Amino acid sequence: MKTTILFLFVIISLSCYAQDGKKWEHIPMSTLTVGMSFQKFEGLNSRIADHPQYEGLRDNTGTLQLGFLKERNRVVSDFGIMGGSSMSGDRDTKSSTLHFIGINAGIGYDVIKSDRIMLYPIVGLGLEKYQAKFYKDNSGVAFEDVLQTPSIKNTIQPVDFKNSFFNYRVGFGVAFKKSATSPCAIGLQAGYTGSFEDHTWKSGDNQSLAGAPSDKLSRFYVGLVFASQPMCMKH
After folding, report:
1. Is residue 68 within a helix (H) or strand (E), and if so which, with residue range?
2. What gap in Å lies between CA 226 and CA 177, rounded to an integer?
3. Distance separating alpha carbons of residues 227 and 235, to the nearest angstrom
4. CB-based contacts of 45: which residues, under 8 Å, 6+ apart?
5. Residue 195: inside a domain
6. Would residue 177 count as lying in a domain?
7. Residue 235 DSSP one-character state
8. Beta strands 214-215 and 184-195: pairing type?
């Protein structure tokens, strides 16, 4: 929670600083990023593989991020709130789902001096929280048995585990504008996100479990970035 608050203060400060610039290029552009990430939680999946009643996690996740992107004197800063989700198996029978949400902030440098094209390496920090949920095939359980026997109801519940990672990010981005004065841009970001250490999976109630597997965040990502400047702030 303290890390989240710190990030918010940093971003608020950056946003206020950006208002000092008189040119529209100095004003942050709001961004919407649609992409994919690729992550193998080998520790958790190896333990799930020992229990054939459950389906393992997929290694790719669809992502959606909202944030802002700003350039000032060729120094680029960005911030985003990201969510991701994936599912494997059959939704109606045996399946698994992975969801995550996170925040990140980064800084980079525009290596191309152009009014229409921006190419920038970027580094940053972030915090991500994950939930993995596993569903058994309950199609053989009678509906009436679930209604009449409380113990059966408990046996058909999914199991879920949670984890969180304080992470670093390295990558690059590129953005294109139709004209030098255009308030909109489209671009691409790609890179790698990793955690500083392994973290042990916990129960769905965030309690420690004896002998629980550990994993390290090691995620590649790519995303299509749609950016626009608020028209009311153009001048």
Report:
1. strand 60-72
2. 11
3. 18
4. 56, 57
5. yes
6. yes
7. -
8. unpaired
pTM of the model: 0.83
Tens-place pLDDT, residues 101-127: 999 999 999 998 888 899 999 999 999
The predicted-structure confidence for 8-34, as pLDDT tens digits, reads as follows 444 444 444 434 433 435 678 899 999
Domain count, the chain: 1
Tell me how far CA of residue 15 lies from CA of 25, 64, 131, in angstroms: 13, 22, 31
Domain ranges, residue 196: 2-113+128-233
Does residue 45 contact residue 213 with C-beta atoms inside 8 Å? no
Burial group, residue 117, by CB count within 10 angstroms (0-12, 13-18, 19+): middle
Distance CA 38, CA 221 (A): 6
**Cα(73)–Cα(227) distance, integer angstroms:** 19
Place of tokens 């100095």: 26
Q: What is the signed CA dihedral for 63, 66, 72, 73, rounded to 10 degrees? A: 10
The verdict on residue 122 lying in a domain is: no
**Is 64 a domain residue?**
yes
Burial of 166 (0-12, 13-18, 19+ CB in 10 A): middle
CATH number at residue 139: 2.40.160.20
Quote the CA–CA distance of 222 and 17 in Å, as a whole number. Answer: 29
